[in-house]
Amino acid sequence: MSKPVLYSYFRSSCAWRVRIALNIKGIEYEYKAVNLIKDGGMQRKEEYIAVNPMQMVPAFVVDGATLTQSIPIMEYLEEKYPSPAILPKDSLQRAKVREICEIIASGIQPIQNLVVLQKVQKLSSEEEKAEWAKFWINKGFIALEKLLEKCSGQYCVGDTVTMADMCLVPQVGNAKRFKVDMSPFPLISKINDELEKLEEFQKASPFKQPDCPEDLKGM
Which residues form the GST C-terminal domain (predicted)? Predict the structure, then answer.
């Protein structure tokens, strides 16, 4: 049986989430790099559009089917490979995990991602793009910090790694990239630091992926 295939870009936070989930589940997979920058972006080439018409990563090919969007991919992995679990058994806690995922995946990341920064015409300089990203990340983190005060333990929801944590670490990575001041978010920072100690999260780091440029590896 062939390995599943993950179409990924080293710096994509959405693909990063799925890499963490695959590592947690202990699933071996083939990594296919999609360079979102080179030559106008490989995601815009006909070959990749045939894989994912949305022209984004990740895309996950398994058992002859292609799944896109990181949250449904992680949900599939949870249902297909239920152990170790990345969703709590308690229905309210499961909802809380999904709430955190949606705050990040719908309320923060899409507004500061590459395609938005490329299309917003008034962002003419790299500095303006960074300020745009910082504004939306900061806005989302203010809400997320308050939410985590009520539901977190060692990790986002209690003391077990969940899908929420798999969304948090890549978003903190984006925050660091855009030089967001993390001092107002001690809880987010603490949880992120704990998660970064885990081997599965370390292996999923952008700077350990095969398509990471040599000058960035080991950061």
Answer: 90-214
